[in-house]
Structures
1.
Amino acid sequence: MGSSPARSDAPEPLAPPAAASEVVDPHLGAISQIAAALATGDAPIEVLGGVLTRIADTVGASGCSLWLMDELELRCKARVGAPPPSVTAVRTRLVPSAAGAPNDGPVVVRLDAANHPLGALVVTPDAPLGATARAFLGTVADILAPVLRQSAYAQRLESEVIERTRQIDRERRVTERIID
């Protein structure tokens, strides 16, 4: 048996892989970077500036802000770029309407964790956002919300530990005085 003739329908050898930046969708790459930043173990407040910058860069926004509920008040806790919209504008866009979200002005994405409203991620885009950019913002909000809730819970626990420690110290001093 001789060698078979060369086949013209044989597949070409695999091309060398393209650079990762050419292969990965920019939204997916940004989600990966945001998740990695939040997973460092640093306090979320320490990485929020970078996270908000990455969000703004990815969707082409002049500003990005994080609004959180604080004592039943919605407050801007972090921002990058242009000044954030007014609290009234954010509250108005947080309420779902039958007409859907408007295409102009800030885009407000609700932050919820365990069915508990935490606040909103607010982006002021330079141009109307498409469906992919809006899905990206929703995904980022879903990543941010539990991290922010856990951080707030840890801060409350830390405050309680400090207060209990002070209380124990006071009681110990009173007991020492009684014994002496």
2.
Amino acid sequence: MRIILVVITLVLLSSCAKKVTSINKDQDNILAQNKGYLLLGIQTNLDLKSIGISGQENIKLSSKNIKEGTNYFLLDLEAGNYTIDEVKLNNYWRRELSDEELWQFEITSGKINYVGHLEVVTWGYRRPITKAELVNRSSEALEFLEGKFPNILTNKSIVYGGPGQDSFFEFLATQNKEER
């Protein structure tokens, strides 16, 4: 009986999402062979409690970096497919995200993977209504990286890994090669 309880406890603990925070220093650390950078933009009209992401690693983006306004998360993750599962607005309200294909993204190893901007807008007081959408703002993400993380951007190529197709970053890379 004790062995069963220990096994159940270990399974529950290992399946919990780890809390992560965004990279703050523009220092391109050597990534493990199977890791890439995740770049996620967040646009919201309120401070969020957390954002849950499941995949190769289960992570929870903490409230420290998801304040009202426009924010970005840059962190290293194991390569693979991920899904944004839930947005926790505060201690009482959360938004489960259905239509899984709209919330899926891919991390490619050795690259900066821009996956979109998560827009979360809430209105109403007694019965708040929340709209959440993952939209592509590749040019804004590139401007952010050029301003805040030029060293990482110099050493790593950037790709779009969010829902749908976007060849903006490939087009820019082709243009830069032609100019040299």
